[in-house]
Amino acid sequence: MDFPIERVEAEHVARRDFAKFLCLVSGGMAVGSGWVAVQDRLFPPHRIQGDVFVCRKSDVPAGGTRGFTVPGSRTPFILIHLNDGSWRAYGQKCTHLSCAVYYSPDKDRIECPCHNGYFDASTGNVLQGPPPRPLPRLDVVLKGEDVFVREPKDA
Ligand code: FES
């Protein structure tokens, strides 16, 4: 019994399928990026009411971090105990395309692995890369041994 497609034609079909696959993947990535941008516009960040407890000071040594969320929101934040002993809290989603950022204590900066975006750990300002805005910041309030966050006064 003969197979009805010649080998040469079979390769053309495979290339055509591969091209379709590439178009689908590219289109999916474009739609995904667009959706992230639309979400940022349609769903403004949740406002924190009052002081929100995060952890005890002893839970995060200098150079360490702790991820947290606040009541009523699933937005991830990162609490950072800087090497100089001060504390910072930022939204953990990169302002470029929302990848999760992390603190690099060796370089004392916040890094986004997706496109090498770097942020100043003390201010949240962009140091390098495509992020268009600083990281959203929360004020850190220390009460005895407890660490709280609140909306910044200038927000
Ligand atoms: S998503 Fe962070 S630099 Fe692109």
Short summary:
The chain is of the alpha+beta class. It has 1 helix and 10 strands.
Q: How many DSSP E strands?
A: 10
CATH class of the largest domain: Mainly Beta
Derived structural class: alpha+beta
Q: Helical region count?
A: 1
Principal-axes geometry comes out as elongated
Could you say which small molecules are bound to this protein? FE2/S2 (inorganic) cluster
Order of helices and strands: HEEEEEEEEEE
In CATH, the architecture of the largest domain is 3-layer Sandwich
Report how far the terminal alpha carbons are from each other. Answer: 75 Å
Oligomer: single chain
Give the full name of the CATH homologous superfamily of the largest domain.
Rieske [2Fe-2S] iron-sulphur domain
CATH topology of the largest domain: Rieske Iron-sulfur Protein
Whole-number tally of structural domains: 2
Largest sheet: 6 strands, antiparallel
Strand order in the sheet with the most strands: 1-10-9-4-3-2
Please tell me the overall pLDDT.
Answer: 88
Tell me the radius of gyration. Answer: 23 Å
Q: Classify the beta-strand content into a percent band.
A: 25-35%
Instruction: Bin the helical content.
Output: 10-25%
| Unreliable segments of 5+ consecutive residues | none
